[in-house]
Amino acid sequence: MDQFARISGLHINAFKSSIFASGQTVTPMLNEAERLGIKAGKLPVRYLGMPLTTKALSKQEYEPLTDQVRGRMLAWRNKCLSYAGRLQLIKSTHKAKVAWEDLCCPLEEGGLGIRKLHYSSKVFALSLIWRIISKKSSMWGGCKKFLDLEKAVKASVASISSGRLIDITGAVGTCYLGIARDARVCEAVTQAQWSVRRHRIRHFHELHARIQREPVPDDQQGQDVILWNHSDDNFKPWFCSARTWDQIRQKKATVLWNKSVWFTQGVPRFSFIVWLAVRNRLSTGDRMRAWGIHQGCLLCGERDETRDHVFFVCPYSFTVWDKLANRLSGNRTDPDWTTSLQFLSANNLQIMDKILLKMVFQTTIYHLWQERNRRRHQTGHRTVDQTVRVIDKAMRNRISSLRYRADHKFTGLMQRWFEV
Q1: Spatial distance between the Cα atoms of 83 and 269, rounded to a whole number of angstroms
Q2: Low-confidence residues of the chain, pLDDT below 70?
């Protein structure tokens, strides 16, 4: 105890402490504790709500803890969560609807914009390297233990107009050109000339000629300028985490529907349901069959419930969609899901009509899926006209909440919605 106090500066109050011991050789320990005035306790004892014993806990002893966890989970109402809270709930779900790889990419590539910790840690490490190289007067730049790292980094970024040497020649190029892997640029110069070995291979012969055409570093022309690569042939004198992350991550193809799902006037929870629908990850009947559950369409009675059927082959859903979007789309509503999504992503409508069409699309998807779940859980059902009125009210509420100024270009959204 005295040694612990000397090292940490923390002193144990013997009158407020108790010691719990078990085994056959605890008598000397208990005698010493009694001498110091520390009370000897007996096991089992409850600590932080859990019993401490010398044996493994039984299932019955874990029940109070599991009951508390179950109660917390049941009280976690989805409707009480914000959009960020719902996202956290999705990430913590044991059986994810969407693969983690698909979530961790930007919105324009079909993901949710979540950044992988693996790539984020790389960005932080590169940020540290940038500080080491660029800020000589800082603590990082003055630490001698980072000098070897700084030297290696300078060698890795050494390049000519055609690109980095290590990328052009590969690892074997350092031997062919006679340049050490950790050499700096100044070490490849002798008497104001490039000191690079010639080679008989045609590729290296041409590379040698290109290197000789590069200007030789000259101290009289000023100090070197340290730049960071922000994109292809775009170097800046500062570090950018977002640009660096975008370069090191694994990229995917851009999807055409991302602006139809994620836009300023959209409702986040509506957009998320549409995103799941676009990726075909809603729990429709065809997907539930894999779990041993047979589910037909609850809106029209069709035996095979699929995403394409619910939106909008089903007579119920298409009638709702056609009543709300027919005039807005110029009589071009279609029951086919792919056709509707393509028209939503690329059309020649006026800007207000485009926004209203995207808003009514995601609002319709959300409330149709809600109506489908109401019927599945036997909590009531609505007629087509009732569903149309609910969607219309949701549209008016959303437009009213935008609160555009009088001189804003989207001030007439509500008036346009009443017209169509």
Answers
A1: 7
A2: 49, 73-96, 136-174, 176, 199-203
Distances 157 to 82, 121, 133, 146, 165 between C-alpha atoms, Å: 44, 20, 11, 17, 9
Total residues found in the chain within this entry: 420
Q: What burial class does residue 322 get, using C-beta atoms within 10 Å of its C-beta: 0-12 exposed, 13-18 middle, 19+ buried?
A: middle
Half-sphere exposure of 141 (CA within 13 A, CB side): 8
Distance from C-alpha of 386 to C-alpha of 323, rounded to nearest angstrom: 12
pLDDT at residue 156, as a whole number: 39
How far apart are the C-alpha atoms of 136 and 141, rounded to whole Å? 4
- Joined together, the tokens standing for residue 344 give 């939503």
- 29 within 8 A of 8, measured Cβ to Cβ: no
156: left (phi over 0), alpha (psi -120 to 50) or beta: alpha
Both tokens assigned to 83 = 């959009």
Please report the pLDDT score of residue 328 as a whole number.
93
State the Cα angle at 76 between 72 and 78, rounded to 5°. 165
DSSP state of 236: E
Predicted model pTM: 0.65
Whether the CB-CB separation of 165 and 155 falls below 8 Å is answered with no
First to last CA, the chain: 81
Pull the structure tokens for residue 250: 């694994």
Q: Which residue has the tokens 């320990």?
A: 29
- Structure letter (DSSP) for residue 221: G
| Beta pairing partners, 40 | 19
pLDDT of the residue at 202: 66
Closest residue by Cα to residue 371 from 394, 355, 354: 394
- The count of other CB atoms within 10 Å of the CB of residue 17 is 14
